[in-house]
Amino acid sequence: MPITSFHPPVRILLGPGPSDVNPRILEALSRPTIGHLDPSFITMMDEMKILLQYAFQTRNDLTFAVSAPGSAGMETCFVNLLEPGDKVIVCQNGVFGGRMKENAERCGAIPIMVQDSWGDPVDPNKLEEALKSHPDTKVVAFVHAETSTGAQSDAKTLVELAHRYGCLTIVDTVTSLGGSPVKIDEWGVDAVYSGSQKCLSCTPGLSPVSFNERAVARIQARKTKAQSWFLDLGLVKSYWGGAGKRAYHHTAPINALYGLHEALVILQEEGIEESWARHQRNHQALRAGIEAMGLAFAVKKESRLPQLNAIIIPEGINDAVVRTQLLQKYGLEIGAGLGEMAGKIWRIGIMGYGSNLRNVLIFLSALETVLKELGANIELGVATRVAAEAA
Question: Which positions bear N6-(pyridoxal phosphate)lysine (predicted)?
Answer without folding.
Answer: 198
